[in-house]
Amino acid sequence: MANHKSAIKRIRRNEAARLRNRYQHKTTRNAIKRLRTTTDVAVARELLPTVVSMIDKLAKRNIIHKNKAGNLKSSLMKHVNSLVA
Questions:
Q1: Residue 84 pLDDT > 80, yes or no?
Q2: What is the DSSP letter of 39?
Q3: 2-9: Cβ within 8 A, 24+ apart
């Protein structure tokens, strides 16, 4: 267990950040899953900007790597474009 007051505060803060990051990551994963399973073009086009924004926020906060964010966005764009054709 931590001996210093600052270390105790840091543990508390880290736990809060971990839970917040976990919630945001899981919410984004659910949104990605919902977008990938949709077959309706209108719904997919409506969901895409919000999902891309969520992915960008995760990458900006270093919850996921920036390259992973790019790969996810690319695959989602391909999926939405394939629905049109």
A1: no
A2: -
A3: none
CA separation for the pair 23, 9 (Å, rounded): 21
pTM of the model: 0.88
Q: Calculate mean pLDDT across residues 48-66.
A: 97
Q: At 75, list the tokens.
A: 């695959």
Distances (CA, A) of 46 to 3, 17, 20, 51: 51, 30, 26, 10
Which DSSP category does 64 fall into?
S
Q: Which residues of 62-83 are buried (b: 16+ CB within 10 A; e: fewer)?
A: ebbeeeebeebbeebeebbeee
Which residue's entry shows tokens 């969901």?
Answer: 47
